[in-house]
Automatic annotation (TrEMBL):
PANTHER family: 4'-PHOSPHOPANTETHEINE PHOSPHATASE, PANTOTHENATE KINASE. This is Uncharacterized protein At2g17340. The gene is LOC104606846. One of its GO terms (biological process) is coenzyme A biosynthetic process. InterPro entries: ARMT-1-like_metal-bd_sf (IPR036075), ARMT1-like_metal-bd (IPR002791), At2g17340 (IPR016949), At2g17340_3_helix_bundle (IPR035073), Type_II_PanK (IPR004567). Residues 52-359 form the Damage-control phosphatase ARMT1-like metal-binding domain. It comes from the Eukaryota. SUPFAM superfamilies: AF1104-like (SSF111321).
Length: 367
């Protein structure tokens, strides 16, 4: 399906949207703050985005699809740095005051204006190819766990392990460039429970006796995240009779998987009978969310996704950008699950947790 140009609110959001929902979890400023002076929180986040500029410049320099990529990458670094410094001096410049959505949007705009469409394409393709080779082994390992609660926890740990592949985090981008990442090793190294937000035991109680009819999952990164984390979880839902809608970005942003890429991945993973390692996929739908950032404002999604999501009884937001930084406190008309790894010290401090801690927030709507 093609995404429609007009964006609409996700119908699963609690109404009225205007008063109940804002796509921003962390309070960057309060009404009493001076509008002409950046708050300490705004300064921390501007510095966080400043720290990622070198890794983005390096990715842009290596983009072989762009003529004169090296000089254009330098222009990106200079222009984006100047904008960030402007926001420090005047938070209302460049459409501010700044939050993570604005800071991401400006970064993408500068890249696109300079001709960069997908500077992470090469690494995404490489990681997708690696993860596809491991998919069946990961699924079979999950299937071999007879206890339903233990299998669910193993699937959840797989989501966290896959979510480590995030090149929007300067520190993780540095580690990845140096050492790469092992999915199975990452599963073993997830921080011990209890996590900073840990509703896994609650979900375990509901898992066997609450079969959801339809789940919408907002997916995050390419590679291990989508292929070894989310897809085994989605396959388990399919096996339990749930229809699953995977909502992916319209346009590239960092190493997030796009709608077009996800269609290719699913096609490669299906066997000749259209199954994912023995599980029928006729109830698996792929939707274009209409989004073009690593964070998401659920008051603006594609009409296609709004239509497909209208009768869902479970919504899942995966990844730090979608599930923590912008929608941790979003309220829905149906059950919801926010799941992601904390990859920025600023987020860890806000939540009162540890760096690389895990968030697993389940909210049940009682009918």
């Amino acid at each position: 399906m093609e995404s429609f140009s007009e964006m609409v609110p996700l119908p699963l959001l609690m109404t009225p949207v205007e008063s109940n929902y804002r796509a921003c979890t962390i309070p960057y400023r309060f009404p009493s703050d001076n509008p002409r002076k950046a708050t300490s929180t705004e300064l921390d986040w501007i510095d966080l985005f400043l720290s990622s500029v070198p890794s983005f410049r390096q990715r842009a320099e290596s983009d072989i699809t762009v003529t004169d990529a090296h000089s254009r990458a330098e222009k990106f670094a200079q222009r984006y740095t100047e904008i960030l410094e402007d926001l420090k001096k005047d938070p209302e410049s460049h459409g501010g005051p700044p939050d993570c959505i604005l800071l991401c949007r400006i970064r993408e705009q500068v890249l696109r204006e300079l001709g960069f469409r997908d500077i992470f394409k090469k690494v995404k393709d490489e990681e997708n190819a690696k993860a596809i080779l491991l998919f069946e082994d990961v699924v079979c390992l999950n299937d071999s766990i007879e206890d339903e609660g233990q299998r669910l926890e193993n699937l959840v740990r797989g989501i966290f392990a896959g979510n480590i592949f995030d090149l929007g985090s300067a520190k993780l981008a540095e580690i990845f460039a140096k050492d790469g990442m092992s999915f199975l090793a990452s599963c073993q190294n997830i921080v011990p429970r209890p996590w900073v937000i840990d509703d896994l035991d609650t979900l375990k109680l509901k898992w066997s006796r609450k079969p959801w009819k339809k789940a919408v999952i907002f997916v995050d990164n390419s590679g291990a995240d989508i292929i070894l984390g989310i897809l085994p979880f989605a396959r388990e839902l399919l096996r339990r009779g749930t229809q699953v809608v995977l909502a992916a970005n319209d346009l590239p942003s960092i190493n997030d998987v796009t709608y077009a890429e996800l269609l290719e991945i699913i096609a490669k993973l299906k066997d000749e009978n259209g199954q994912l390692v023995g599980v029928d996929t006729s109830n698996l739908l792929i939707a274009n969310s209409g989004n073009d950032l690593p964070v998401i404002d659920l008051s603006r999604v594609s009409q296609e996704l709004a239509y497909l999501a209208s009768d869902a009884d479970l919504v899942i937001l995966e990844g730090m950008g979608r599930g923590i930084e912008t929608n941790l406190y979003a309220q829905f008309k149906c059950d919801s699950l926010k799941i992601g790894m904390v990859k920025h010290p600023e987020v860890a401090q806000f939540l009162g947790g540890r760096l690389y801690d895990c968030v697993f927030k389940y909210n049940e709507v009682l009918s």
